[in-house]
Amino acid sequence: MPQQVVVFLENKPGRLAHVTEALAASAINIRAVTIASAGSFGLVKLIVDRPREAYEALKEKRFSVSLQEVLAVALEDRPGGLHAVLSLLAARGLNVKDACGFIVESARKAVLILEVEDARAAREIVAQAGLVCCEDELYRL
Amino acid sequence: MYWDKEIEVLPRPELESLQLRRLVETIAQAQKAPFYRDRLAKEGLSPESVRGLEDLRRFPFTTKQDLRDGFPDGFLAVPREEVVRVHASSGTTGTPTAVYHTVKDLDRWSDLVARCLYMAGLRRSDVFQNCMSYGLFTGGLGLHYGAEKLGAMVVPSGVGNSRRQITLMRQFGTTAVHIIPSYALKLLETFREMGLDPRKDTHLRIAVVGAEPHSEEIRRRIEDAYGVFAPNSYGLSEMNGPGVAFDCPHKTGLHLWEDSYILEIVDPKTLEPVPEGEVGEIVLTTLCREAMPLIRYRTRDLARILPGSCPCGRTHRRLSRIQGRSDDMFIVKGVNIYPIQVEQVLMGFAEVGNNYVIHLDRQGASDRMTVKIEASEALLALGLDRLKDLTRRIAHALREEILVTPEVELVEPGSLPATEGKAVRVVDNRPAQGD
User: Are residues B266 and B415 located together in one domain of the fold?
Assistant: First the structure.
């Protein structure tokens, strides 16, 4: 399963830059990033090319960091693509906790990252519809 | 089951006559030290003043300040050349204090520690890893010599270097450790990083946790995570160090060795004895020390004597856990608070790790208390909404316990003081009174 890197950050100037600095120093490429804040702190979620190394690099710098399994789906970059996936999950009662998407120009593809309650079950469902973007593909993009 | 059966189950009347005999000797010995020679003469007290144990109450207390004033030699009751070891307090709160030992003192101290360890279940076949600092601090050497006296094999691993600690445990088949509680919890992270589970991948069965006040919840966490019996230990450098009182496997309270110490519990304000079973300050008199006898030493530790007897059959009375240290108490908005109260509340939340600091600031005329808790990896799994909710629930639970509503903040690990020794729990940035 693909993994996203989740980092806890205090809501203070320069903290995010420390994260990107640590990743850049380890030559880790960030594919997508989302930030959600709750007043004095926030969570940064990163999709990177080498999640395990990113985790180690951030841990080394004493960040609070964890790896979470997510569902990554490759979609054709056209209307209705996202809906096709979400309706599959909704039909099976799987709750989507968070999501982000990005478009890969070179591949003319949209990649959807979904944080679902049961990532493995969700993967099965999407795989049956022939839609999965496996880990390798995600990291090679 | 007993290290020193005769002494450990001695009937109370005989234990008390032993105490009386040793008290008279102790007073005579104390008179050889400059401090007590002067003080006892001034009060008109001598060994002849002691006809019964109750006469001890005629003697003045000895305080930490007396020890500081007497530094370095005021309490020495033997010629300097008889002394073979000195231990000193860290002096973090003022002038250091020194405690001297003769060969006989060290032997008796080691024997008391061996008695504690044996009571907790340690045997000659055990491998005892001492993850404590060696040096002026009494915990490291105290347990080291005690475990050796008992006949266990000691691995003197010292503090820090977490991976090496774990490797040593595995290489030598360590069955017992002596470890600071906050470090025991921190070490779990290293176990995890190494892909090991202390319950399965070590032979640990006893963890002596000490040198830092900790709550019952912390002890339980250590016991659960390591699959061990973690006896509580009480001691202080002025009374040798570890070996004063210790848990037996029945966990009914800490047996205080009354053949070696006379225990009193007094009200810290009036200095009168508290009614039986109530919390007060522990006051101790040494009964077996040559180099530096101490009479009615005020420990500043708060505890109570537990009623009834223990199924283990030992006749020595039992102390409750230390409920706080009068020195550690801080006051916020006029309310007395002990750090251990805060810890008890925090550890009631399974998601909260052991890394936290209490910050005290002044905002205008009023005190502000902030509890900063490390956002551990385990917490991240909760997600943003539940994290926010968690801080609210913690603040609420703290208010119930300490009657002050603190700010509760989740912080990055790097925001808290990093330590492999005693954890810093309270940072008081308030200007001193009168500034």
Answer: no
More confident residue, B352 or B169: B169
B199 closest CA partner among B165, B222, B216: B222
Give how many domains chain B has, as a whole number. Answer: 3
| pLDDT score for A131 | 73
Distance CA B171, CA B179 (A): 18
Contact B339, B213 (CB under 8 A): yes
Contacting residues of B for A62, CB less than 8 Å apart: 412-414, 418
The pLDDT of residue B309 is 93
Interface contact A112, partner B, CB < 8 A:
no
Residue A78 sits in the same domain as residue A62: no
Rounded to the nearest angstrom, the gap between the alpha carbon of residue B312 and the centroid of all alpha carbons in its chain is: 23
DSSP single-letter state for residue B424: P
Min Cα distance B141 → chain A (Å) is: 32
Condensed to tens digits (0 to 9), the pLDDT of residues A121-140 reads 888 888 887 776 656 666 66
Q: What CATH number corresponds to the domain at position A101? A: 3.30.70.260
pLDDT for the residue numbered B434:
39
Looking at every residue in chain A, the average pLDDT score rounds to 84
Contact A44, A9 (CB under 8 A): yes
Q: Are residues B129 and B224 in the same domain?
A: yes
| pLDDT one-digit tens code per residue, B363-408 | 877 889 999 999 888 888 888 888 989 999 999 999 988 888 899 9
Which CATH number characterizes residue B364's domain? 3.30.300.30
Return the higher-pLDDT residue of A60 and A141.
A60
Q: How many domains does chain A have?
A: 2
Look up the domain containing B161 and give its range.
122-228
The reply to whether A48 and A77 lie within a common domain is no
Average pLDDT score over residue span B305-309: 94
Residue B114 is assigned to a structural domain of this protein? no
CA distance, residue B415 to nearest chain A CA (Å):
9
Quickly count: other Cβ atoms within 10 Å of residue B350's Cβ: 8
Smallest Cβ–Cβ distance between B380 and the set A39, A66, A98 belongs to A66
Pairing of strands B206-209, B176-179: parallel
Identify which of B161, B121, B111, B106 has the alpha carbon closest to the alpha carbon of residue B420: B161
Average pLDDT, chain B: 91
Q: Given this model, what pLDDT does residue B419 score?
A: 61
CB B384, CB A36: distance < 8 Å: yes
A132 to A2, A5, A69, B41: CA distances (angstroms): 11, 20, 14, 91
The domain of A119 spans 71-140
- Residue B435, pLDDT > 50, answer no
Of B278, B306, B325, which closes a domain? Answer: B325
Residue B312, SS3?
Answer: coil
For the beta carbon of residue B338, count every other beta carbon within 10 angstroms: 20
- pLDDT at position B269 is 78
